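Throughout our pipeline, every protein is held as a single compact record rather than as scattered files. This encoding replaces a full spatial description with a residue-level series of whole-number codes. The remainder of this section carries one protein's record, kept here as part of the documentation.
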Amino acid sequence: MKSDIQIAQETEMLHIREIAKQYDITEEELEFYGKYKAKLSDELLSRIEKNPDGKLVLVTAINPTPAGEGKTTTSIGLGQAFGKMGKKAILALREPSLGPCFGIKGGAAGGGYAQVVPMEDLNLHFTGDFHAITSANNLLAAILDNHIQQGNELRIDTRQVIWKRCMDMNDRALRNIVVGLGAKADGVVREDHFAITVATEIMAILCLADDMEDLKKRLSRIIVAYNLDNEPVTAGDLKAVGAMAALLKDAMKPNLIQTLEHTGAIVHGGPFANIAHGCNSIRATRTALKLADIVVTEAGFGADLGAEKFLDIKCRIAGLKPDCTVLVATVRALKYNGGVAKADLGNENLDALKRGIVNLEKHIENLQKYGVPIVVTLNSFATDTEAEISYVRQFCEERGCEFALSEVFAKGGEGGIALAEKVLSTLENKKSDYHSIYTDDLPLAEKIETVAKEIYGADGVSYTPAAQNALKKLTDLGFGKLPVCIAKTQYSLSDDEKKLGRPTDFTLNVREVYVSAGAGFVVAITGSIMTMPGLPKEPAAYRIDVDESGKITGLF
């Protein structure tokens, strides 16, 4: 069986100008990054602004397991299937982080015969967007420490510096560090921290900003520290905004690439869904809606994270209204939720399937609360049996969901036609009545509790004293009407990754709360979630190499 990278490298890609032509984009409206990648110019975005919007399809999934779900693969295969059916469709996806690529999760280019290419470029440096975000973030950190060193005119309390440095790599040794060691000229000694680039506020701002003017306004609102009077100090106060915007100028432009079957894919931004808001950029999604009749987008990890944040944060800020939601599951993952060991998932086990399907059931119930029609799809594996597939089909249909089997990994677009037909039928015959599950006026604690109870199934929420104080402080500072972005493990509906299935009788534990004032949401850190991941014992990096001809190997 061929690996993902072998399939991708054997595919004959079209020049990106040919992909652009499908969407009536001229060469003059592209900024080429070689033959197969391009950025979409501001001129294009202005020209298509008055075009009618296409239909928006959100792809999400059950909680991820070691058995695999295939949310991005399904998204790409669905886009390819629409192409096979003669529909004008385009994808709107996130860029992958280097951290998981060299760690354990892998990239975000899809899999099998449902991939976006060039997959090596996408999973590594791509067009440099993440490097620009990292540089802008660390420039602000450098200006902040320099201000303290040069007399501290803003009277910053060095015990209340909250801005973290970042890098796009899993490096646990940088989670908690001390800076300023050495001579007096080397800076003020203080505790500091690193986050991974995809968890930073700069990443969130880039993905939520409308244009350069909005980007600069958001950058100026970033709170980097508090002064000795406990008042916020912002990036605007530090005069860092112009230089940061200059670094982000090109990164603001969405990127266009293609699938294995030459469907267009706008890939832009990449916040993690477990520790950030987990959606591609608003600019990319809006652009896609103006270019095609159907836009397929995805939100990271399970629906309790990515979809909740897409529906409660991104749609609220951007004014988007999804027309259909595709919920991805696998028989293997459901059996894993039912207590079957990974090694035994290939064996038919209806009892385990019935125990584990409660995870899917909870996600269906959750998504129905937003008023968007749902199509459930099973990402097919060769070991799935007819009895198992029939059980899941009946289970979904009894709950008012359309159901389709997806075989896109093995068959590409052809294997996604059954799913595409169900999605088309839903778009044509079922009305979306999208609404968020909480209002802006609800207090921050009640917003957190709403998500905890309604989406996770928690009995309630507990807060550390520090988190309680932060909620009061942020409310007093005027941030009480912002939406909440909850950082939580992706592996469970609860904040304990070991609780599979549909956990009950648990409390969500919030240990830290802070505001991302530029992004426009309040972050609640729960359980043991970290904003800087670590590498596993056997990192994926061990298997990656490049041969004498420059061909990359081992990248999935």
About this structure: The CA atoms of residues 441 and 481 lie 6 Å apart.
